[in-house]
Amino acid sequence: MVQQDEVAVADQTGRGLVVELQDLTKTYKLGQTRVRALRGVSLEVRRGEFVAIMGPSGSGKSTLMNLVGCLDRPTSGEYRLTGRTVSRMPADELADIRNQKIGFVFQGFNLLARATALKNVVMPLMYAGLSRGEQERRARKMLQLVGLGARMNHKPAELSGGQQQRVAIARALVNNPSLLLADEPTGNLDSHTSLEILTVLQALNQRGLTIMLVTHEADIAAYAKRQVVFRDGRIVRDEVMAAPRSAQADWLASRQTRQTSQVTQEERAEESKGIEEGSSHE
């Protein structure tokens, strides 16, 4: 699903820190109530890691991802992204960092319905000061990278759910980010298609891309190299997995099961048809 010789993702040489969080807090005010969404969170994510951020609703994982994604700023504490302190940056600088350093993949594909896959992937480059030819060259390479080289001119309605999410991944990568944030990227997909997307993410991670994935499903987190679990705004477990599951192996097994099931259904249909025809001749 991911082409192995098309293009390298962001330069991930070395094993430096991509994300450094020190005693991060976030407090919201809802009417007269103060909600402490994060309570002193410290976390480091190194280049080339694939980290699953887990926890129930209200645990703080979504707040964390908003802060890591430079969509919001912490109440207190420090956040460094690739060595640069971003926790106290003004909004315009924060937006620049977000566009240059971070790629986003969401549960909803957020594609422009009237635009082709190629044009959807080009979108983040429109204000990057590149020629149209260079924009399209980069977008084509990203679509090839996620296995959609033959679908560049298709619109979202002409693509499956898994293909649409792969377009979204290509769009997230087109700026050559240091970090990919995936927020419930399989939430709108069936189990087989979810494995397709996880196969793409694992392959990109093997090429050196740093990934943080938010999920509330343990089955999805099992494909990450590291699991960080949140509860009540705090980290309650941070564990490196000895043997993450292989999404590609599970996808192949799922495909075999689906093919076997389809053959069985066809055989039953033929058998039923034969019985009906036999009854009509009696």
Topology:
Elements: E1 17-30, E2 33-46, E3 50-54, H1 61-68, E4 76-81, E5 84-85, H2 91-101, E6 102-105, H3 117-122, H4 132-145, H5 161-173, E7 179-183, H6 191-206, E8 210-214, H7 218-221, E9 226-231, E10 234-240, H8 247-281
Parallel strand pairs: 3-8, 3-9, 6-7, 7-8
Antiparallel strand pairs: 1-2, 1-4, 4-5, 9-10
Helix pairs in contact: 4-5, 5-6, 6-8
Q: Would you give an account of this structure?
A:
This protein has 282 residues and is of the alpha/beta class. The protein has a domain at 48-69 and 99-245: Rossmann fold. Helices cover 38% and strands 24% of the residues. The protein contains 8 helices and 10 strands. It has helices at 61-68, 91-101, 117-122, 132-145, 161-173, 191-206, 218-221, 247-281, and strands at 17-30, 33-46, 50-54, 76-81, 84-85, 102-105, 179-183, 210-214, 226-231, 234-240. The strands form 2 sheets. Strands 6-7-8-3-9-10 form a 6-stranded mixed β-sheet. Helix 6 packs antiparallel against helix 8 (247-281). The radius of gyration is 22 Å and the shape is globular. Residues 4-14 have low confidence and may be disordered.
